[in-house]
Design a protein that fits this description.
three-stranded antiparallel β-sheet
């Protein structure tokens, strides 16, 4: 085995994990240890010892340059710490985590966890599950209090639209959440930061992390801020969910054209987390494609895109 060189020391296991992820993102594998007897990462040594990161000697200089490029300025001889890689995200969501490890957990995709040989990295799937429940409860509560004139069917339709994967992905894009996702190399290369399913899942996991870190009121405040423009749109225009398939059909019929057809062109992912790709065909020609975690949502997205294409081209 190649000689290892210690290139980073820290009093915090969390800080060491941040640096390790940074190096891993640049293709440099590292070994983590502490000065405690028989201790090895993952562990919590804050206040108890020192955590060290070591890399192969041939990669030591590159590793130091990468770390130095992410350091803050030195002031009054204080120890230089790494910049908070999630600072811009915390500013965007309007919430600062007490336990930053929860935020990192929420942003960790299964592809990253699967590539970690230490076994100390856990993906965000359990947080997605919890976030989905918290989101559903808060949105239902908001609709109950703000749209009392809507009947049960109308509220259900609005809720389904608000918590859909497409809506959550658009909100995630507004926060630039994709820039902060912790992905495996394969998912990174395949454009995972722009995939709607990953963005929506990360958004739900983020909600769960806020809930666990700050309680239900902090989670509710975040969701209320994020969904305020959408609720305002419903309030001002009287919208009860957007049925893009119906809108597209009405648009085509008003111009004497045939009904649209929807075809599944591809599916990806395991059975419990499939992503469907659907194309919409008008008068025998494919007009647009859409993707989603179900055929229904993929069809809605394809219809939405198709409507925009047809309107823009004047067809």
């Amino acid at each position: 085995m190649s000689e290892l060189v210690v290139i980073f020391r820290a009093p915090s296991a969390i800080e060491a994990k941040v640096v390790r992820s940074l190096l891993d993102a640049h293709g440099i594998m590292s070994v983590v240890s502490s000065n405690l007897p028989h201790a090895i990462f993952p562990l919590s040594v804050d206040g108890l010892g020192e955590v060290r990161l070591a890399v192969r000697a041939a990669e030591a200089d590159d590793a130091r340059r990468i770390i130095d490029s992410h350091r803050t300025e030195v002031r009054n001889g204080e120890v230089v710490r790494l910049r908070d890689e999630f600072e811009s995200l915390q500013q965007a969501i309007g919430y600062r985590f007490r336990d930053r490890g929860l935020l990192e957990h929420a942003l960790t995709h299964t592809s990253r966890a699967n590539e970690d040989v230490s076994g100390g990295v856990v993906d965000n799937e359990s947080l997605e599950f919890l976030g989905d429940a918290v989101l559903g409860f808060v949105v239902a509560d908001l609709l109950f209090h703000e749209f009392q004139s809507f009947n049960e069917g109308q509220k259900s339709k609005v809720k389904a639209s608000l918590v859909s994967a497409q809506t959550l992905a658009r909100l995630a894009e507004g926060l630039r959440l994709g820039n902060h996702l912790l992905l495996g190399r394969g998912e990174e290369k395949s454009g995972g930061r722009r995939k709607q399913a990953l963005l929506a899942d990360g958004y739900e996991a983020l909600i769960a992390a806020i809930y666990l870190d700050g309680g239900v009121e902090q989670a509710r405040a975040f969701i209320a801020r994020e969904f305020a423009p959408l609720l305002s749109d419903i309030r001002e225009r009287g919208l009860v969910g957007r049925d893009h398939k119906s809108t597209l059909q009405e648009y085509l019929q008003s111009r004497g054209r045939g009904l649209p057809e929807y075809r599944v062109t591809d599916t990806a992912g395991p059975d419990h987390r499939k992503t469907f790709q659907v194309e919409v065909v008008v008068d025998g020609s494919a007009v647009a494609t859409g993707a989603g975690p179900s055929k229904k949502e993929a069809e809605q997205e394809a219809a939405r895109v198709a409507l925009g294409v047809l309107q823009q081209s004047g067809q």
